[in-house]
Sequence to fold (103 residues):
Amino acid sequence: FKTKSFISTIRYRDAAFVDGDKIKVYLNDKIIEPEVVLDGTFKGFQIKLEKGINKIDFEALNEGFASPNTAEFSVYDDKGVVVSASQWNVGTGYKATIILVRE
Fold:
């Protein structure tokens, strides 16, 4: 996704039954959130976007006690507009990737 934003907001939650699902978040292959326990409300953080490619990876660390891992993600630009939003139902080790290109 292309953007002119300098900052992006990443938000996530458990999209189904809150059962201890955990994720790890990377920015350009560097860990920025080593372990996040998902609950029913959105939580998140802001990242400063580098000029060019910004790769955001979400990795399922477990499947909670009710398989599979059910995460929901939203990525916003600096004006609060949704750039990308998705859900998954995956096993441990699966990664979802969003690439933001700051122009």
